[in-house]
Amino acid sequence: MFKNLFKKAKLQVYSPANGELIPIENVPDPVFSEKMMGEGIAVIPTEGTIHAPVNGTIIQVAPTKHAVGILAEDGTEILIHIGLETVSLKGEGFNVCVQTGDKITVGQILVEVDLEYIRTHAKSIVTPIVITNSNEGTKKYTVSEEKEGIAGKTVIMTAEAK
């Protein structure tokens, strides 16, 4: 009867985009591949919409529109960094659909992206999804073995209290 009462809550992080999932270690940028910003995974998007990977609150939208910070309901901080070296695009190719303080739900569109523009003008369309507070050591992160992500449907990572 009490077995489930003390069960550890597990946060499920869903793919923010349709596309190929790759280990964070394979991202061609040492800031991400060496986990300087935290644990994570990446997606190579096949469509130009970035969706909410969790229920939570938008805590940051980069002025250059290439990155969104999310605070999940369990306190996990998630950064979605759209493409590599996209800060130099100064917002061109991005249409942000949310703003700081917005409550979001899994699957909600956060950013519309012109993938062709990004492919042509930035280093890569690889999109890292990083747990920026993973170094606190209070949670265990498990990255999915999935190879393809469907936005808002495929679980790409879980976080649970240690």
Automatic annotation (TrEMBL):
GO terms for molecular function: kinase activity. It is found in: Cytoplasm. Pfam families: PTS_EIIA_1 (PF00358). Gene3D superfamilies: Glucose Permease (Domain IIA). Residues 29-133 form the PTS EIIA type-1 domain. PROSITE patterns: PTS_EIIA_TYPE_1 (PS51093), PTS_EIIA_TYPE_1_HIS (PS00371). GO terms for cellular component: cytoplasm. One of its GO terms (biological process) is phosphoenolpyruvate-dependent sugar phosphotransferase system. The keyword Iron-sulfur does not apply. PANTHER family: PTS SYSTEM GLUCOSE-SPECIFIC EIIA COMPONENT (PTHR45008). This is PTS system glucose subfamily transporter subunit IIA. It comes from Neobacillus massiliamazoniensis.
